[in-house]
């Protein structure tokens, strides 16, 4: 469903993505992990066409994305930080987004699930950060497209809302959707992800299942395995799964 072939992106002299090759399995949940500055958000923005790579190819549903825009109608996107007009109410914002998307939408159940029914007539400038994030989630999930891209979706959420989000993501996966997310919250990865993509310095350092990444380090769980990878990030080149396995035999 989503494929990157030798994608490179630089900002000035800084290479953010270095010939990235990535294939996201259709109908799966893939978590992109890595330290700050590893290229996670740049990958997402490149897939969305918000950043144009210096070289390489990106495909969504087997169609090239570079200098195209129609494919974006198949993607629902949750940005890490959403900026909306402060003077709008929640109801007005939802109406505006629906007019822009011109797609069928269903937000009533989402508003109830995230406890937003009583907030729909409030202006965005009067909402807390966590409530804004819940509005952001409603906007993302109220459409029904085959691809979901979630950039740090748990930001600012309380524990109940986080559980609601997890349930919602699994429900969307059950519909056959392809879901790509970035997060620093390991419980989200543990509960949701079928596959982990670990980035370091603009390269894919590891791609595989959660069990594979745990088995290839001396750690006993995913969080400690990720910490182990970070502690070994001084290596100049990414290591393959086979190389990692050999190093612990």
Keywords for this entry:
single chain; 249 residues; alpha/beta; Rossmann fold; six-stranded mixed beta sheet; four-stranded antiparallel beta sheet; disordered C terminus
Short description:
This protein has nine helices and ten strands. It is an alpha/beta fold.
Structure description:
The protein is α/β, with parallel strands linked by helices. The protein has helices at residues 40-48, 90-101, 108-113, 129-141, 159-174, 186-192, 210-215, 222-231, 241-247; strands at 2-11, 14-24, 29-33, 55-60, 63-64, 75-78, 147-151, 178-182, 195-200, 203-208. The strands form 2 sheets. Strands 6-7-8-3-9-10 form a 6-stranded mixed beta sheet, with helices on both faces. A hairpin with a 2-residue loop joins strand 9 and strand 10 (203-208). It starts with a strand and ends with a helix.
């Amino acid at each position: 469903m989503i494929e990157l072939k030798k994608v490179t992106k630089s900002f000035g002299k800084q290479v953010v993505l270095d010939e990235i090759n990535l294939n996201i399995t259709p109908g799966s949940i893939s978590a992109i992990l890595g330290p700050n500055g590893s290229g996670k958000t740049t990958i997402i923005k490149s897939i969305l066409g918000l950043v144009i790579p210096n070289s390489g190819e990106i495909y969504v549903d087997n169609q090239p994305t570079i200098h195209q825009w129609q494919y974006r109608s198949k993607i629902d996107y949750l940005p890490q930080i959403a900026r909306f007009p402060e003077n709008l109410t929640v109801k007005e914002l939802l109406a505006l987004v629906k007019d822009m998307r011109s797609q069928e939408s269903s937000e009533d159940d989402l508003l109830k699930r995230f406890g937003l029914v009583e907030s729909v007539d409030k202006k965005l400038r009067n909402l807390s950060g966590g409530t804004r994030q819940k509005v952001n989630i409603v906007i993302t999930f109220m459409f029904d497209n085959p691809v979901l891209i979630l950039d740090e979706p748990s930001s600012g959420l309380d524990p109940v809302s986080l559980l609601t989000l997890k349930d919602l993501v699994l429900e969307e996966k059950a519909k056959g959707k392809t879901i790509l997310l970035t997060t620093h919250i390991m419980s989200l990865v543990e509960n949701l992800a079928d596959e982990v993509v670990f980035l370091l310095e603009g390269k894919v350092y590891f791609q595989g299942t959660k069990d594979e990444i745990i088995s290839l380090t001396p750690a006993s769980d995913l969080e400690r395995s990720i910490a182990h990878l970070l502690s070994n990030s001084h290596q100049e080149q990414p290591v393959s799964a086979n190389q990692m396995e050999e190093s612990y035999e």
